[in-house]
Amino acid sequence: MTTSNSARFPLGVSFHTLDHEQRLDTIGILRGSSVQAVELWEPTFEKGERHVQEVRLALAAVGVEPRSVHADFDASLDISSPDAAIRSAGIQAIAAALDLAVQIGASVVVVHPSSEPIESDARDARLEQAKRSIETAADMVQGAGCRMAVELLPRTCLGHSVAELLSLLENVNPATVGVCLDVNHLMDRFASLAAVVHSLGPRLLALHCSDYDGVDEKHWPPMRGVIDWGAFLSALSAIGFAGPFNYEAHLDGQTPAERLAFLEANYAQLMALVP
Predict the structure, then answer these.
(1) Around Cβ 214, how many Cβ atoms within 10 Å?
(2) At what angle do helices 49-61 and 84-104 cross, to 10 degrees?
(3) What integer best gives the mean pLDDT of the chain?
(4) Three-state DSSP class for 2?
(5) Domain count of the chain?
(6) Could you give the 3-state DSSP secondary structure of residue 105?
(7) Other CB atoms closer than 10 Å to residue 28's CB: what's the count?
(8) pLDDT band at residue 2, thresholds of 50, 70 and 90?
């Protein structure tokens, strides 16, 4: 059972971390659970209007919001690429995620601003190209009545710092485009996480929560790595963040039910830290 503080940060989970195949039947185990929202991974989600509507109805029946859809990403879909065909494919991947979001009733599409590696001498040009692609995608998303969350990425990816990520968003409507903060993407800057939250402020639209070793992303469950979760939760409270506390982590357990039980127990421990 979760604490009363859990109401401040409703529990969300990337559905593929509970069930890698995102099956319709798995939704039933969410009935009566602490989970209030899910993020869908578009590339492996079964397509077809009938299936999408069945999932939408099943989620509604158990009281879970389909809050976000994550767009596909890799080097062949890089919206910062100098290759026009690759950029176009990346925009089409965002369009596919947006189409699923509209069909299933999700309000947010999560996108990556680049793949990697990005060489230092090409970075400025790639940033400008990504910025133009984000503007194109923002028009699509706004026209569909949704919002877009551009993810803070690690290593040499574009948007690997708050300043760089916000520079990519300077020409788009803040009411339409915000940030998805993946907390295990800060590399050796893990101690700055609370400051990052404050810097993002109202631009913070979505979370990907997991833990890591302070070196590179691991997607461990929270409290298995270096993140100061109390400080992070305090920072979220301070800026008035009201979105789901969304887990994108490797959860313990062999079955979806076992992973759900682990998720709820871990979440209850974290919510006990909320001031």
Answers:
(1) 16
(2) 50
(3) 96
(4) coil
(5) 1
(6) coil
(7) 12
(8) very low
Which pLDDT band holds residue 3 (cuts at 50, 70, 90)? very low
Q: Where are the alpha helices (DSSP H) in the chain?
A: 15-18, 49-61, 84-104, 123-143, 162-168, 193-200, 229-239, 256-271
For the chain, how long is the longest CA-to-CA vector? Answer: 53
Angle at the Cα of 170 from the Cα atoms of 201 and 247, rounded to 5 degrees: 45
pLDDT band at 1 (very low <50, low <70, confident <90, very high): very low
Task: Answer whether the bond into residue 117 is a cis peptide, omega within 30°.
Answer: yes
Distance between CA atoms of 63 and 202, rounded to whole angstroms?
27
Distance CA 171, CA 216 (A): 31
For residue 15, the one-letter residue type is: F
- The residue behind tokens 């699923």 is 100
Say which CATH number the domain at 250 has: 3.20.20.150
Cα dihedral across residues 167, 170, 173, 175: positive or negative? positive
Give the residue from 79, 188, 193, 98 showing the smallest Cα distance to 145: 98
CB 214 within 8 A of CB 188: yes
Its domain, for residue 16, covers 4-271
Sheet holding 108-111, edge to edge: 204-208, 177-182, 147-151, 108-111, 65-70, 35-41, 11-14, 245-247
Higher pLDDT, 2 or 228: 228
Residue with tokens 């090409």: 122
